[in-house]
Amino acid sequence: MKTIYKIIILVLILQSCSSSHKEKDKLIGNWSVVNGLNEFEFYQDSLIVSEWGMSYINQWDIDSSKLYLETIKGLDSFGIKTKEFDFRLSENLDTLFIKKLTDSVFGPPILRIKNAYDYHLKRLQLVIDLPSKTNLISSNEKGTGLDIYVGFRDGKLIAKTESDKTRGLDEIKYETFAFIASQETELDSTNFQFNLLIDKSINKTEIDSIKNILQSTGYNRMFRVYNNNKVDYQNTDWKDDLNWFGVYE
Questions:
Q1: Average pLDDT in the chain
Q2: By the 8 A CB rule, do 129 and 97 touch?
Q3: Cα 130-201-125 angle, rounded to 5 deg
Q4: Ramachandran class of 218: left when φ > 0, alpha when ψ lies in -120 to 50, beta otherwise
Q5: Residue 119: φ, ψ to 5°
Q6: Distance between CA atoms of residues 73 and 66, nearest Å
Q7: CB atoms within 10 A of CB 199
Q8: Which of 20-29, 73-82, 143-152, 230-239 shows the lowest per-residue confidence on average (mean pLDDT)?
Q9: Inter-residue contact 100 to 82 (CB < 8 Å)
């Protein structure tokens, strides 16, 4: 009988471990808040939390609603003081919410990051599905460019630079001249360009209207960014530097 009890206990332990692994698998990967100031790297045996340029390394576990942390001693041992959090995960497993047990509301959404392109657009709060094209060249091959993003935010068409200070192209002249002045390389009409990342659903009339706004700066070179089987921005690690490829238009 003792042997049977031991077997039952062992089976229950194994089932519990298997269930815990399945729950943890839902969080394995890279996560970030929109502004990138808080980042989370979940591994099976550790969690790296980066905030304000500092990193904390923790052991972690979860149950159905709680996230438990234990600082790994000797590695940023001042670590996170809070050891237990409430957490919620969206149904499609792409958004995480956490809060301290003493807080009444959850913190800002923490977004799953799939790759460097995904990370870049989520920091801009934009969705841009690039069109495909063959025979692409690097955006750095013939000049230096100011990136212009044309995509969607909550279903609304947005055209903007990478700057968090502007929501549109109203200040494009100022942003263009400020960008040119910030570069170590001397830029003029022969080597400065606008790098256009435009969603494939945007029609020609809308694109021409955006180009007219950009050309009001006195600079006319337009480099449109594309992807293809050889240039896949989504086949990147989340912290990779992105190099745009496309054609001059």
A1: 87
A2: no
A3: 60
A4: left
A5: -60, -45
A6: 22
A7: 18
A8: 73-82
A9: yes
